[in-house]
Amino acid sequence: EIAWLTWLARLTAAAGNANLFAIYLAEFWPRANSSGPRLVILALLVGLLAVVNYRGVRAGAHLIDFFAVAKLLPLVAFIGTGLFFVRSSNFLTHAPAAASSWLEALLLLVFAFGGFEGAVIPMSEAKDPRRDAPFALFTALATTTVVYTLTQVVVSGVLVAPQDSDRPLAAAARQFLGPWGATLIAFGALVSVYGLLSSMALYTPRLTFALAEQGDFPPIFAAVHPRYRTPHVSIIFYSLFVWALAATRSFRWNVTLSAVARLLTYASTSAALLVLRKQQPAEAAWRLPAGGLFALAGIAFSVALLSRMARSELAIVVVTILVAFVNWLWARSRAGIASGSGEHDEA
User: With 0-12 CB in 10 A as exposed, 13-18 as middle and 19+ as buried, what is 120?
Assistant: First the structure.
C-alpha cells in the first residue's frame, strides 16, 4: 500500500505542477488558463516529457541539469531585490484565523516541503551513506526553509492582498521591478516548474518499473522497450494519469491530495520505526535520541492534518489502497503458485 500511495503522491504532485505551469503561462497568454487552450497546453507539456523520456534516460537527465541551474536565478533576483521594498505594515492583521484554517495551511506546506525522502534513493552510490544522507537532508531542508521564508516575506511585504492573485510572485515583482520584472519571474516560474516536471517524469516511471520487478506493481509496468531500453509502459501510464489529473482537477486539489498521500506514508514510516526498534533493537546503524517520541509526534501531526481531508480526496486514497490490496493478494497467490510449481519440479 505504501508503494501505491507514494506513486499517488508523485502523480498528483506532477499534475499540480502542470496546473501551475498553465497558471503562469497566462502571464504571457491570458487564455492559457481557460478550459480549451489549457487542455491542449497540458497535453503538449506532458506529452513532450513523455517523448523525451521514452527515447532514453540520457536525454531526460540532460534536460534536468539545464533546468536545475536556470530556475534558481530569477528567484534569487526576486528575493535579493524584493527585500528592499517590503513594508512592515502589510504584515499587520486583525482577523484571527480559525484552527481549521491553520491546519489547511499546514497541509499545503507538507506538499511544499515534501519530496525530501527522494534524496536517499541514490545513497547506495554515496561514499559514506550514514554520514552523507543526514547531512544532505538537513542541509536541503534548511536551505528550502530559508528560501521559502524569504520568498513569503517579499510577497506578503510587497502585496497588500497576495491571496487575490493567481500569480503572487509575478504580481509582487511587478510592484518593485515593473512589467519586465513580472515577465522575468513568470518565465522563471515556468522554467522551475518544467524542470521539476522533467525530474519527476524521469524517476517516477522508474519507481513503478522497480516495484513491478519486485512484484509490488502489475508486471506490465516492468516492460522495457526493445530499442530504447526504457520502461516505456510505466512512462505511458505515468503520463496519462498526470494529464488526466491535471486536466480534470485544480492545482489546489492536486497538491492537497499529494500532501495527504505523503502524510499517510510518513505516518506509516513513523509507526514502522516504533515496531522495528522493538523487534530488532540491534539492527539500527544510527539511533536518534528520543526517536520514539519523534515518531509518535509525527503520527499525531499527520493524523491532525489528515482531518482536513475532503471527501473526494478520501475517496481517491481509499480506492488506491483497495487497488494496492487487490494487487497484493494477486501477487501473493501468484508467488504461491510459483512456489508450489517449484516444489513439484524438485519432487
Answer: middle
